[in-house]
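== Item description ==
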Amino acid sequence: MRDHSQVSMKDIAARVGCSVSTVSRALRDDPRISSAVRVRIQKKAESLGYVWDRQTSRTMARFRAKATGESAAPEPIALVHAQERRYERQDPLGFWTALTHAADSLGFSIQEFALDGGSGDIAKSGRRLSRVLLNRGIRGMVLFPFYQPDIRHWELDWDAFSMVAVGSSPDQPYIDRVDLSDYEDAIRCLKEIAGRGYRRIGLTSSEDSERHTGGVFVAAYRYFMETHPELEAVPVLRMTGRNRQRCRPEDRKDFEAWFKTNQPEAILTSHHGIRDWLADMGKRVPDDLGLATLWPEKGWSGIEFTSETLMRPALEHLRGKLATNERGPTSAPRRLLIRSPWREGETLRNR
């Protein structure tokens, strides 16, 4: 059996079929060596048990690049999530595009890793992924914990990485986050609706949304209605689906019953399918009632944001954590909240 402690660059070069200098440059992530060759050499080094300090190699490579005026290889960052789809292939909201564009300008490269929760053993998947990332020398993570009940179940090696999360979910483990300012955005929408003369304003929510945001939309609605006595509040409608694609038949029945009972003049919602439901009920938007959205939708009045407003601040924050070697959860997590602008659409009018 080979003594791994005696493995040399010469051994690696012999196995790969290249020169020792090529191995040396590949282990330093020298951009003069193609990415495919670098990966092949680094994987062979790992399989042979050759130990080298990836981060020191990268740091030295950057110093050399700065001194010679050459371009340093970008530092790899892991995008980690537990969604079934891969953002690199299916990116309807532009998250992957925005993240990779920001990474290019900040000296990073993004590698996507989806945890396998389909088998029910997401913890095993998280532990396995941690080993993969450590073997590849990846120090930083961007987490997409969207609609995850508790990301502690991912069981990543939290203390081994610098990390920042994009989006809301329960706060365990305590990590820094970049998120939309949902409370302020809801207040902004309600002000816009009331400013157009609507007085009886309704809100649709969802059980899933309230779990992962802590019910901020409902809290904003209740506060706004209580502090504006000239307005008429109606009971909040909670549906099982969180958006148009996920609404269920019972959601439509509940909506129709809620609407007939409460007769709102305007509705604040992220359930865009209700516009079609209202049309089937003979209601015209905005002639008979107004609609405003808490999530961007073509043609709607309401909140507007771009993925760049979330992704670049997330990577800038992660860059600072990497620079100071700040790893793992913290007892005082920071949250950067991004306020969204208002967009005029065709679903509201002045009454």
